[in-house]
Amino acid sequence: MTAYQRKILRDLWRERLRTALVVLAIALGIAAFSGVLSAYAILTRELTGAEERLRKIGPQRQRVGGQLAGGADRALGAFVVAVRESLRQGRSVTISGFGTFVVARRVARRGRDPRDGSVITIPAGRVPRFRASRALKLSVR
């Protein structure tokens, strides 16, 4: 080992805390970089799939009212139609990190007519429900 290498090792040993912090900073940088690359790969995959689904559903846009700027109108319209059709068929729709749209069965029950207060029977039926994801709940708190 040369004198220069011994000097470097001696300095690293004397400044152990600083050395540890530098090593930790490098490790965190590498982890962050790999996280960014992973997120990029996931977003690319998800957005490509979403774009293809929106292209398939695009012509059904006329069934949704309202106007939004540019392509947002088409995207939101396609999303609403896709959710509506899935729920109509009894399937749930899950949006990762946001929540799940589901169809729930409601049993027949008794209620009161608000006009005259008489007892009426409310028929059984299917109703849409939304369950917020844990991530959405935590972001609202």
Structure in words:
- The protein has 141 residues and is of the alpha+beta class.
- The chain has a domain at 92-141: HU Protein, Chain A (Irregular).
- It is built from 4 helices and 5 strands.
- The protein has helices at residues 3-14, 16-57, 71-88, 134-140; strands spanning 93-95, 99-106, 109-112, 119-122, 125-132.
- A 3-stranded antiparallel β-sheet has the order 1-2-5.
- Strand 1 and strand 2 form a beta hairpin.
- The radius of gyration is 28 Å and the shape is elongated.
- The mean pLDDT is 80.
Q: Which key features would you list for this structure?
A:
about 140 residues, alpha+beta, HU Protein, Chain A, 4 helices, 5 strands
Summarize the structure.
Helix content is 56%, strand content 19%.
Shape: elongated
Strand order of the largest sheet: 1-2-5
Percent range for β-strand residues: 15-25%
Instruction: Kindly name the structural category.
Output: alpha+beta
Q: Could you tell me the mean pLDDT?
A: 80
Separation, N- and C-terminal Cα atoms:
59 Å
CATH class of the domain at 92-141: Few Secondary Structures
Task: Provide a count of the helices.
Answer: 4
Helix content: 55-70%
What topology emerges from the helices and strands here?
Elements: H1 3-14, H2 16-57, H3 71-88, E1 93-95, E2 99-106, E3 109-112, E4 119-122, E5 125-132, H4 134-140
Antiparallel strand pairs: 1-2, 2-5, 3-4
